[in-house]
Design goal:
Elements (H helix, E strand, L loop, with lengths): L18 E11 L4 E10 L4 E10 L10 E9 L6 E3 L4 E7 L3 E7 L5 E9 L4 E2 L19 H4 L1 E15 L2 E17 L7 E8 L4 E12 L2 E14 L2 E15 L2 E11 L4 E14 L6 E12 L2 E12 H8 L1 H6 L4
Antiparallel strand pairs: 1-2, 1-11, 2-3, 3-4, 5-6, 6-7, 7-8, 8-10, 9-10, 10-11, 12-13, 12-19, 13-14, 14-15, 15-16, 16-17, 17-18, 18-19
Amino acid sequence: MIIPEDSDFHERDTTDRTWAETTVLLFSVPEAGIIGNAYVLARPNLGVATSAVIIAQGFCRQPFEVDFTDPQVHQPCPDNFSNYTLPSGLSVEVTKPPVDYHFTYEHALGAASFDLTFTGLSQPFDIHDKNQNPLLADQMFDSLGDQWKNGHFELLGHVQGELQLRGKTYKIDSFEGMDHSWGPRLEEGRRALSWMPIAFGEDLGMHIVTALDIVDGRVVYGDLRFGHVVDHGEVYGLVEARIEADHVDLIGVRNHVYARDVRGKEYDFYGTSLGGHPYHQFNPCSVAYQSLFRYDLNGRIGHGVGTDVYGLDFLADRMSRHGRQRGGTR
């Protein structure tokens, strides 16, 4: 069970150099095809933090097409994780722990800024709580990596505010996902997974995490690792989910989502991408391919930024010349 104190730094072995805590926020402007991310990875035992902001409009098949990117590594680690400002210009305040947040950002050269509130739609989903996660007994967190093996919660929320991007101003009013992780964390780049928040408004949304692979050059979504539905503020764990999708250069362009929760309630709907891009800058050992999908659930329209996260070694094993020559079987 997630408690308010989980929004801040956790007790830890102060000699463990691998200890990390992360916070990620997504935001979007569906009518403009804009996706935004604010990501912080703090290593308090080392005294450093990474701040990464990326904003992209439409389809960007190459990193140089992305509208704005500001990855700042070796920032001084803040002394707390609930109300801080980094030299990068990114500030995070947990206004109602652990569900409500205030994010602001001001680029040093004025290329982008935002002022955003995140209001949680429910209590956070604790992936290690058997009362919330019905698949916990079947989980193999080793297959997902140590960033999931330790403390981790997921949260759907309403993001509101304003974005300024290279001289243009956009209103933000979207429903997105965020999360917070903590624990020992190596950066190995040997795994892949799909992280997919979907929301149809304040009363209905879901979050799905599945295994991910590339087989004969095609992206394949595997078994549900964990997930949940938020229905009028109540959290219901998922027991089944299937995703099929079409991609261009690993960027999702269409998908079909099926999910079933612990109540037996089923959801079956299709999505069409409004934009997507590769996101190389948040972690040197990984790349995320993100797409902003427009979903239609029996005539009800929703949106969500699907994020397929690949370790670079995972991709090399399957798609590089040497990886293909050896069969990419690791």
